[in-house]
């Protein structure tokens, strides 16, 4: 493994609590290098899962947070001007394909469609990445795998992956784990007691029931971890929940009242 790619190797095991058979299934998809789509709401463990899997498979992981300003060149690479003239610099997707990493495109739907199509030739039997500006065709390294994340809740007709893109991937569904498992995760990540973690999870469950009834997204596991971390440092639970759980997700005064009431029920 060369120096360029070594920096992407994950040395220490990222903690991941399996929820179902996703670890075994992912290993099977990696064995056949199937491009994968991790579907689920934000903050439910998709990124942590792929980090854990890259570590377990001992493969470097290159993560790209996608956004609407991203161009194909941001993924593939570009010519740069320096003192000695122009030189080509591989983008993250090209580095992953050339050197054999798992490339994780987080929230790929945020990227414009002309950007997403650059992944097409990498996701079929050809496994190639054309660097048009450079006039090079990269044949993907045998270890290369493409993984994307996708939040089904966010999509509108205007902003969705094209069927021709979706059908190139296998998919694993992610969701917030059940009460016991989520409590275990919050305890592990924050150091709060199981009792406090369980209360935080109960508040999140209330909020998740309000999704679609005034809330766009429920309280995520990530948010519970923020709240738990504050409580672990000695912040009063009411204040911690207000800051980490309630205020970020809604500006609606009635909804804030409803969520604050849920906090008072449990703390
Ligand atoms: P996503 O990529 O789905 O937006 P993340 O993977 O960043 O979400 O998850 C947010 C946080 O929740 C992680 O940093 C991790 O602490 C925690 N988490 C969620 N699910 C799990 C899990 N199954 N095992 C361990 N940690 C988890």
How does this model look, in words?
The protein has 2 domains: 3-173, Rossmann fold; 179-266. Helices cover 43% and strands 16% of the residues. The chain is built from 12 helices and 9 strands. It has helices at 3-6, 22-31, 46-57, 72-76, 92-99, 113-116, 163-166, 179-190, 194-209, 221-232, 237-249, 253-266; strands at residues 36-39, 61-65, 77-82, 85-90, 102-106, 128-131, 136-139, 145-150, 170-173. A 5-stranded parallel β-sheet has the order 2-5-8-1-9, sandwiched between helices. α8 (179-190) packs across α9 and α9 packs antiparallel against α12. 38% of the residues are buried. The structure holds adenosine-5'-diphosphate (ADP). Adenosine-5'-diphosphate (ADP) binds at residues 15-17, 19, 40, 42-48, 177, 185, 189, 221-222, 225.
């Amino acid at each position: 493994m060369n120096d360029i790619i070594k920096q992407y190797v994950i040395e220490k095991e990222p903690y991941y609590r399996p929820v179902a058979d996703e670890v075994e299934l992912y290993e099977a998809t990696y064995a056949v290098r199937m491009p994968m789509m991790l579907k689920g709401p934000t903050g439910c463990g998709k990124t942590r899962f792929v980090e854990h899997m890259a570590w377990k498979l001992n493969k470097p992981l290159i993560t790209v947070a996608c956004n609407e300003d991203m161009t194909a060149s941001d993924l593939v690479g570009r010519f740069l001007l320096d003192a000695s003239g122009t030189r080509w610099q591989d983008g993250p997707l090209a580095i992953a394909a050339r050197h054999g990493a798992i490339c994780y495109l987080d929230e790929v739907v945020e990227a414009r469609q002309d950007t997403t199509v650059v992944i097409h030739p990498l996701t079929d039997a050809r496994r190639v990445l054309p660097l048009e500006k450079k006039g090079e065709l990269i044949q993907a390294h045998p270890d290369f795998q493409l993984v994307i994340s996708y939040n089904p809740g966010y999509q509108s007709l205007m902003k969705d992956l094209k069927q021709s893109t979706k059908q190139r991937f296998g998919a694993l569904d992610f969701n917030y784990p059940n009460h016991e498992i989520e409590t275990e995760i919050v305890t592990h990540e924050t150091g709060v007691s199981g009792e406090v973690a369980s209360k935080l999870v109960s508040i999140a469950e209330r909020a998740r029931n309000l999704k679609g009834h005034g809330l766009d997204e429920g309280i995520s596991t990530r948010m519970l971890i923020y709240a738990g971390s504050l409580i672990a440092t000695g912040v009063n639970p009411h204040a911690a929940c207000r800051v980490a759980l309630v205020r970020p997700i809604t500006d609606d005064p009635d909804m804030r009242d409803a969520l604050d009431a849920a906090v008072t029920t449990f703390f």
